[in-house]
Design brief:
Chain lengths: 757, 160
């Protein structure tokens, strides 16, 4: 079909308010009587609380409430409630430096800060454990002393017979790969305002990627009915997974508001964001890959130890997702995936763009190059021979719908001039090229046992289309994507659409913006709603124009009867329908991602994914032998979009992902000593700045076969998944050293160069 | 201790009573309601709070409000006039240089100062000029393009 709006690189619908400063983020909101909430956090990695004295804080002028564990519900919380392990405020034990101990509400920042400093806590120090291997030793200190060990969650997946395959294959490579904690560093830190009304209803303003599930989480931990909780979003200053699961500052602010009868705001400082805002889960991965002489990969065997930090949060879900991607990237007949999450006395992890997949892909795609090297095959050639184009069901049960893996590899390698650069004679500079493939979900997942979305559209007589969707825009641009889908389907222009997604009172229940989910899931619902509204409009127009609804044409905000030259303004028709005939025009749309036959949560594995997205990145690097700096010169990123909804925004998602991938590969790591974060500011925890970025060429590869709106897939996360292994492979090409740990820092490179000389 | 402060922001004169310890950022956001200027770190490390003080870019989180006494402050709210976007703003919109938008006001103000000072910067000068402004969303590719487009738009304006 020909499209007017889909595929165009149209400016985002919220660009003007953002570029003029008019856009209001949650931290910008003001309201009468607003108090400042502040949290007292543990200075110890592991300690028992012997006593807390809040009297001095309570007596300080301007302090309206001081709370400790005895003032809050004592239930525990986690993303999976059956794994609940986190207090709102710690009553007996603190488990990491930053754990919440007490909180105050005061009239201003200075008073709140002073009040926090006046709370006296007497601690008895307990032995702490910071390293996953030490945590697994017999007799290691227990992070949660009611549990038998620090091993908190394990997964095992087995397909085929890996032991037999390893014994029989022609080549085997093995190695251990390590990644560390990466911080999300959203420019707007985590924050909220809580306020109770006279009907005993709680409203929370916050920057949430999943307001409906966070609403349930708040109700659950506070022990109040869900119907009494409302969550309102504003413009969001970034998410990247960090705003998916409820932070305990929400119930803390709620209790403070309850006690004071006034709205209470809590905002993370940048240091709190680094030290308590949760991180990407560090993985230690022991991997074996086996192949036959012809290059066919026949077996993969992986053991993962994931560092949960002090509490579960998203750990179990992350490791489960890793297993699905491990089984799907290539169609390998014999697969074993064994993983466990381990408690340590550190800041916990949570969802982070890629959700366990960037760590995993660093191991698998690095090792594929090691295998190619051992076999004497070009790494590109080895990948092409194993390209996952089954277009059916893989050995581990993944249903591949529309796969352009080979096209992505060809496009990326051609653009980077792979064969010329591989064959280049050494001219003394330490340059190299590398590439890596990826697979990721392009449509969220069925992990809750369902995956569905709904949207509403109303056409108003004054000439606007109101689109109510639950696709939360945290900056990735889903408001624009949804508006484009609605405009295309309805036959109106983009500027006619007003998108609302911010209020749980208004929007339909939804799992939220995560897992590259919104375009596929909410986009489908929006398309269905627009189709429904279009049918209603055609019906009304047919009555007014005395024609058959099937003969009504709606395009570019005009309505006419097929064959007639008389075109009517669409909104005049709406006006007439509403005001002269009393016919309201609206639409409702649902999309229910049907579960495959025999689906059960424990056995679903890769059948959880409704739509896979493949891609390839090829990079060129130069290593400075004097400083050890790895400079990424160029990245070519070829990613599947199914159908591109907005070219500029799809490129933007990939470019931004690559920046985070470069950070993950070369720069970013929270450094701790005895559990204390040493780099809790941008000066010390460096994220890529404008001068660190290479030239990036983005290639959007369209493919057929997905069930997304107009055939689209999600593109929010894929760009971050293959960047680090592509860089590691290029570094190997440049200096002949294989790094098994991220980030590849200058001192690691210098040390390695010293050894090779 | 509070002291009188006479300050001009976006052309409007304000007569305030301000504690000497407070920052320009706090006064802009809390006292004047100009929340377009963002606080990303409070330590002068991310550039989100950049405003122009007598035309020069400063981190308003590191500038005491009283340092701005008697001087001209320009914030993002004062950049467009009569509903018409400044060429730098137009370029950020058209090039897709905005995602979450939280760094955008600081990025735009720094770009304006850069192009005021040097209307024809090289790519290297652009990178050097914007190094102090962090963005976690865009990967900067489209921000560089936007600065270059703004450069052209401003040059065209000069010709008219």
């Amino acid at each position: 079909m020909s499209t007017c709006i889909i595929g165009k690189g149209l400016p985002r619908v919220d660009a003007v308010p953002k570029v003029t400063g008019a856009a209001q983020y949650t931290v910008d909101l003001k309201m009468p009587g607003l108090l400042v909430g502040k949290i007292l956090r543990s200075p110890h990695a592991h300690a028992r609380i012997k006593s807390i004295d809040t009297s001095a804080a309570e007596q300080l002028k301007g302090v309206l409430a001081v709370i400790t564990a005895k003032d809050v519900p004592d239930g525990l919380f986690s993303f999976y409630q059956w794994l609940a392990d986190k207090n709102i405020l710690c009553g007996e034990t603190v488990r990491y430096i930053g754990d919440e101990v007490a909180a105050v509400a005061a009239v201003d920042d200075d008073t709140a800060e002073e009040a926090v400093s006046l709370i006296k806590v007497d601690y008895e120090l307990l032995p702490a454990v910071f390293d996953v291997h030490a945590a697994l030793e017999p007799g290691a200190p227990l992070v949660h002393d009611d549990k038998e060990s620090n091993s908190t969650w394990s997964v095992e997946r087995l397909f085929g017979d890996p032991d037999k395959a390893l014994a029989e294959c022609d080549f085997v490579v093995e190695g251990t790969y390590v990644t560390h904690a990466q911080a999300h560093t959203c420019l707007e830190t985590s924050n909220c305002i809580a306020k109770w009304d006279e009907k005993d209803r709680l409203t929370i303003w916050t920057n949430a990627q999943a307001p409906h599930t966070q609403r349930q989480e708040v109700a659950r931990i506070l022990g109040i009915p869900r119907r009494n909780v409302r969550v309102i979003n504003s413009y969001m200053g970034g998410g990247f997974g960090s705003k998916l699961v409820m932070d305990v500052k929400l119930p803390i602010a709620s209790v403070l508001s309850r006690l004071t009868g006034r709205p209470v705001r809590i905002v993370n400082t940048r240091s709190e964001e680094f030290t308590t805002g949760k991180t990407r889960y560090p993985y230690t991965m022991s991997l074996k890959t086996g192949a036959m002489k012809d290059g066919r990969i026949v077996v993969r065997d992986l053991t993962v130890i994931g560092d949960a930090g002090a509490y579960h949060d998203k750990g179990p879900a992350t490791i489960n997702f890793s297993s699905m991607m491990f089984g799907t990237l290539y169609d390998v007949p014999n697969i074993r995936f064994q993983a466990q999450m381990v408690y340590t006395n550190k800041e916990m992890g949570t969802a982070f763009r890629g959700f366990g997949n960037p760590q995993l892909t660093f191991a698998t795609e690095s090792q594929l190059d090691e295998l190619a090297h051992k076999m004497g095959i070009d790494p590109l050639d080895l990948r092409l021979r194993n390209s996952n184009c089954s277009m059916g069901t893989t050995s581990c049960g993944a249903e591949i719908c529309g796969c352009a893996m080979t096209e992505c590899m060809e496009a990326a390698s051609e653009a980077i001039e792979w064969s010329q650069k591989k064959a280049r004679p050494s001219d003394g500079t330490l340059r190299g090229v590398g590439l890596a493939n990826m697979v990721h979900t392009g449509g969220g997942g069925r992990f809750y046992g369902y995956n569905s979305a709904e949207a509403f559209i109303k056409l108003s007589d004054e000439g606007t289309v109101t689109l109510i969707t639950s696709a939360l825009d945290m900056g990735q641009g889903s408001h624009t994507t949804m508006a484009q889908i609605a405009a295309e389907e309805l036959g109106v222009s983009l500027s006619d659409i007003n998108v609302l997604s911010h209020d749980t009172e208004l929007t339909p229940y939804d799992l939220g913006s995560w897992g590259s989910r919104a375009t596929f899931m909410d986009g489908n619902a929006v398309q269905a709603a627009a189709r429904d509204a279009r049918a209603a409009l055609a019906e009304a127009a047919a009555e007014m124009l005395e024609a058959d609804p099937a003969d009504i044409v709606i395009e570019e905000s005009k309505v006419w009867v097929k064959g007639s030259s008389e075109k009517h303004d669409l909104f005049e028709i709406v006006d007439h329908a509403v005001n002269a005939h009393g016919i309201p025009i609206s639409g409702t749309g649902q999309f229910v991602d049907k579960l495959p036959e025999g689906y059960t949560i424990p056995t679903a594995f890769a059948k959880n994914i409704p739509c896979f997205s493949f891609g390839t990145q090829a990079v060129e690097v130069e290593v400075d032998p004097e400083t050890g700096q790895v400079r990424v010169l160029r990245v070519v990123a070829a990613h599947e979009t199914g159908t591109t909804i907005n070219q500029t925004m799809s490129e933007g998602q990939i470019e931004g992902s690559i920046a985070q991938g470069i950070g993950f590969a070369l720069m970013e790591r929270l450094v701790r000593q005895e559990g204390k974060v040493q780099n809790d500011r941008f000066l010390d925890y460096k994220i890529p700045n404008i001068g660190d970025m290479p030239e990036i060429e983005t290639i959007l590869v369209e493919s057929v076969g997905t069930k997304g709106p107009f055939g689209a897939k999600g593109i929010g996360e894929p760009g971050l998944v293959p960047t680090a292994p592509a860089i590691a492979n290029a570094v190997f090409d440049a200096i002949g050293v294989r790094f098994h740990e991220l980030p590849i820092t200058r001192d690691m490179v210098l040390e390695a160069l010293k050894e090779t000389r | 201790m509070k002291q009188e402060l006479l300050i001009t922001v976006n052309g409007d004169e304000h007569h305030l009573l301000v504690d000497t310890r407070r920052t320009l950022l706090d006064v802009l956001r809390d006292d004047l309601g100009l929340t377009g200027t963002k606080n990303g770190c409070g330590a002068g490390e991310c550039g989100a709070c950049t405003v122009l003080l007598d035309g020069e870019p400063v981190n308003s989180c590191l500038t005491l409000a009283h340092e701005a006494a008697g001087r001209d402050v320009l914030t993002i709210e004062g950049l467009s006039s009569g509903g018409v976007l400044h060429p730098v703003q137009q370029a950020f919109v058209s090039q897709g240089a905005i995602q979450c938008g939280f760094c955008t006001p600081g990025m735009v103000m720094t770009t304006k100062a850069l192009l005021d000072r040097n209307p024809d910067p090289t790519r290297e000068e652009i990178l050097a000029g914007l190094r102090g402004n962090l963005c976690r969303c865009t990967g900067y590719v489209k921000i560089v393009e936007a600065v270059e487009v703004a450069q052209c738009l401003l040059a065209e304006e000069e010709l008219v």
